[in-house]
Structure formats: C-alpha cells, structure tokens
Design brief:
The chain is of the alpha+beta class and 75 residues long. The protein contains two helices and four strands.
C-alpha cells in the first residue's frame, strides 16, 4: 500500500473525466483506469495521488458520485 494514494470507484467514463478535470484545476494529479470488477457492467476507477482528503472534499462539493474506494496497491 502506498501513502497518499487511493482508488475511487466511479460508474462512468464521463463522470471520471469530469472528476479528473476538477482535480487537475486544483493541482491534484489523477489517472482514470478501467475497473476490473465493474459496476453493473461498466465501471472506472480514479487513482488519486496527493491530498486525498482535499480531493474527496472537492469531488463531493461538485456532486461527483463515488461508489467506493480502496487503497492503492501499486504505484
């Protein structure tokens, strides 16, 4: 597990891209990944490095739905 890294489960690529833009505008690096398990057949993960608490607060303030999270296991 890596410090200051989390994977957030997001249901669609559109929402993941919007979340990435919001974070980038605030100086937080993120990457979009296809989820291995998927949510109802379609799912993505947003890998966030940095201030996780701030990132979650920003996404919540913009009403980005997060369906779960897990710690990063790889860099």
């Amino acid at each position: 597990m890596y410090k200051d890294c989390i994977l957030l489960d997001i249901s669609s690529i559109t929402i993941a891209e919007k979340a990435k833009r919001i974070l980038k505008a605030s100086g937080i690096h993120s990457e979009i990944r296809r989820s291995a398990g998927g949510l109802d057949g379609c799912g993505y993960q947003l890998k966030i490095n940095g201030d996780i608490s701030r990132a979650k607060t920003l996404l919540a303030s913009q009403k980005i739905p997060i369906h779960g999270s897990s710690p990063c296991t790889e860099q």
